[in-house]
Amino acid sequence: MSTGAGQDPGQAAEAADEAHLRAALALAARGLGNTWPNPAVGCVIVRDGAVVGRGWTAPGGRPHAETEALKRAGAAARGATAYVTLEPCCHWGRTPPCADALVAAGVARVVVAMRDPDPRVDGAGLARLRAAGIAVSVGLLEAEARALNAGFLKRLTRNLPLVTLKLATTLDGRIATRTGESQWITGPEARRMAHALRGRHDAVLVGSGTALADDPDLSCRIPGYAAVPTVRVVADARLRLPPTARMLREGQGPVWVATRPGHPDAVLEPLRAAGAEIVEVPEAEGAHGVPLGLDPAALLRALAARGLTRVLAEGGAALGAGLLRAGLVDRLAWFHAPGIIGADGRAALDALPLEVLSAMPRYRRTALALPGADLLSEYASETHSSQIGAD
Predict the structure, then answer these.
(1) Does 198 carry a binding-site annotation?
(2) Which residues does UniProt mark as catalytic (predicted)?
(3) Residue 172: pLDDT over 80
């Protein structure tokens, strides 16, 4: 690869490393929403300046990115440099360790964006590569790698999935008229982008009120976009979701109904017979022991325990406010339609409530897009971004 006139060879090598690792990150992003409970990893193998192999974590989490890249590289991997977004694994699961595969392939150097905090790995993969005489570099583009796998990291370190709250409102923050009419506030381009958001998350979460009012199927309806069907989760403490709900009749993928313990089998059985999985979650308690609905943190811990790393919360107003009150919303995806309904319309969020501005949840804008006539603003929590990374 030419370094260009007057360019320092060391700087050129660093620039090449960054370019190849960015390409690996772009490959890893293809796996978001499809690899849970595994992380989404990308790998690029380069020899003599030419890419000889590329791979990313396959749907369902296997094969791993390194395995796929090595398969494509074949004999050309010997003496090459492998660029990997996360430390190669070193333990046996349903597939052999990726660190061993890189050693067996004869790669000369491995550039890793970040160390894997999984206790089964956590530096052991890097040590295995070094013990085999492979040159290892760690930390290039680490912030970007942490942002991409923020859901995996949060589940691993805090037993919680990454939560994105998606809202679609008028300019004045309304989701429906006073009579409840809401379809459609945003246009077809925004709705397609919302389906793409579903495809990049492991699950979509709604409250029972939204499930009853809209009877949605909650799947990603972009053909070929989500290789692994999105899990549909309904937070339903009172178990109001009927077995005839559209998501149980027509949608693709699992349906989990999160509800309080203690419902009799006669009430649960029709939902189970319709294909729903029941997830029992304790209720939060208010003053004098009065139940306040499902405990949002307990709900998310239950989802994380089942392997989910990225959850898209789509409403309604009570669910969104509950997650915000508990400090559990990591990211916001807010679609604004260029219209106004007024104070008698239905608000996007219930009361938080706040007495002082210092208690207000704060977010920093990370992206803007213009789907058709609408506006999509994306935000990351200022509180959580330092812990798990942000786009």
Answers:
(1) yes
(2) 66 (proton donor)
(3) yes
| Cβ neighbours around 91 below 10 Å, total | 14
Residue 12: pLDDT band by 50, 70, 90 thresholds?
A: confident
**Rg (alpha carbons) of the chain, rounded to whole number:** 23
Is 283 marked active-site?
A: no
Q: Per-domain residue ranges for the chain?
A: 15-151, 159-381
Measured at the alpha carbon of residue 272, what is the angle toward residues 266 and 275, in degrees to the nearest 5? 155
**32 assigned to a ligand binding site:** no
- Say if CB 149 and CB 39 are below 8 A apart: yes
CATH homologous superfamily for 15-151? Cytidine Deaminase, domain 2 (3.40.140.10)
Q: Please give the angle made by the CA atoms of 32, 35 and 36, to the nearest 5 degrees.
A: 100
Residue 347 host element (H or E): strand 346-347
pLDDT, average across residues 326-343: 96
Instruction: Look at 339 and 289; give whichever has higher pLDDT.
Output: 339
CA–chain centroid gap for 300, Å, is: 13
pLDDT in tens, 76-96: 999 999 999 999 998 776 678
Identified catalytic residue from 66, 68, 144, 378: 66
Has 359 been labeled as part of a binding site?
Answer: no
Q: Is 46 within 8 Å of 81 (Cβ atoms)? A: yes
Superfamily name with CATH number, domain 159-381: Dihydrofolate Reductase, subunit A (3.40.430.10)
Phi/psi for 271 (5° steps) reads -70, -45
CA 52 to chain centre: 29
- What's the mean per-residue pLDDT of the chain? 91
pLDDT in the model for residue 47: 97
